[in-house]
Amino acid sequence: MTINSGNPAQAGVPKNLSRDGKVPVDLLISPIGELVTAESKSGPIRGEYMRDVRRIRDAAIAISGGQIVAVGKADELSEHIFTDSSTTLIDATDRLVTPGLVDAHTHLIFDGNRADEFVMRSQGKTYTDIAAAGGGIVKSMRATQSAGVERLVELGRRRIERMLESGTTALEIKTGYGLEVESELRMLEAIYQLKAESVLDIVPTFMAAHAIPPGRDRERYVDDIVTDMLPRVVAMAEHQAEKCGVSAESMMPYIDVFCDRGYFTLDDTRKIFEASNRLGLKTRVHSDEFVNLGATTLAVEVGAASADHLLNVSDEEIALLAKSDTVAILLPGTSFYLNLSEHAPARKMIEEGVALALASDYNPGSCHISSLPFIWGLACLHLKMLPEEALTALTVNGAYAIGLGANIGQLIPGFQADVTIYDVKSLEEVPYNIGWNPVKQVIKKGRIVYSR
Ligand code: NIG
Ligand code: FE
User: Engineered SS bond to 438: which of 19, 281, 422, 444, CB 3.0-4.6 Å?
Assistant: First the structure.
């Protein structure tokens, strides 16, 4: 047995639930060809520890009340658990099993699409050219502004379904296609509705600072965000918290800014971050995607939860990140989809000890990819990450990056039972099969929520 050394009391199960010292189990996955999980109860995993995952052949996972109660070798574990006719059994012989995947950066809510821009790029236009000609984020803004909350929820629901089929069990979702207060709040409302109805864990981010709305003065728009939008965001989160009977803190969205040439300046970003901090809102930033404006340094200074993209991060900033709790979220799908020749310096970051996560950046323009197994393949190909490092980045570190690390992203007793089962035999076969969905079954909070 593992972690809990076979003692049900240590497995997070109340003593009065155990029968003759055995843990009653309502879902048992056994046997498992290969179980792989990263483990850390003390925050994101760094450096060489990222590849130091736990691999168990002929494994089993016992689940009760939505939680993992035991993990280990199938033959050893069977002595410690109690199953009866009400226990659901999953046979994962010859299959790989990992924690449910975590997508820590998505722009999942938008109306319309930008397939035309994909074609334009294949003919030589860049993301920047297209945005300057009235496409890009502003094009999605036009489509999204005219959509009501219900339509946005419906669009989001279908996309979340697709993510689940690729093994994602928790995700962050940003606003940012409203770009004026009422539309931004409609997007946020849609995210809260999805959060309430979905079996997946959803973490909201407010990103009115995604682009400068056409015809608006940039500085005035930033003022609007600071003086009008952020307080209303807090009020909405408080209202949601009351409605759901949870703490206001647990409903507060993160605040994100696209700090890049043609978008928001370092000064704008600082103003928005300072206002966020005053309101008790945590921050994250789109940093160094096209040019380096210093946003990563600022992110570390203000204690942002993450700095994302980082294609043009400097060596000094990598050193700063390494000493901080700010997670670097790399998005190899975006550099691939934009056909860039440069990628984020993942190897250097790992060597220096940066807390590194991977995510999809799923959005209508720069990365219309929502499959994390595909992102995993790109991380190995373009970022030169090992399959084990990518798993750590897509589970434990992704979960910590969105504030859920103490409860999800690991196959250990006491953690939420979020499990992805693949139709391949070993970890390496996930990135190896890039382009084909290897996910066979998904368990969320101890329930089978997807089977193929
Ligand atoms: O992360 N970089 C800024 N935002 C998105 C792009 C969104 C879009 O093009 O619609 C990104 O790449
Ligand atoms: Fe993004």
Answer: 422
Distance 323 CA to ligand 2 centre (A): 24
Same domain, 423 and 301: no
> Do residues 228 and 280 share a domain?
yes
Q: How far is the CA of 422 from the centre of ligand 2 (A)?
A: 28
Question: What are 301-330's pLDDT values in tens digits?
Answer: 999 999 999 999 999 999 999 999 999 999
Residue type at position 16: N
CATH of the domain at 307: 3.20.20.140
* CA 250/CA 305 separation, integer angstroms: 15
> Tokens in use for 43?
């925050």
* Ligand 2 centroid distance, CA of 198 (Å): 22
Written as six digits, the tokens of 241 are: 């918290």
Which CATH number does the domain housing residue 29 bear? 2.30.40.10
Instruction: Identify the nearest ligand to the CA of 288 by its number.
Output: 1
Q: What is the pLDDT of residue 18?
A: 67
Ligand 1: which residues within 6 Å by Cβ?
107, 136-137, 140, 258, 286, 289, 334, 361, 363-366
Question: What count of residues does the chain have?
Answer: 452
Q: Enter the pTM of the model.
A: 0.96
Q: In which domain, by residue range, is 197 found? A: 102-401
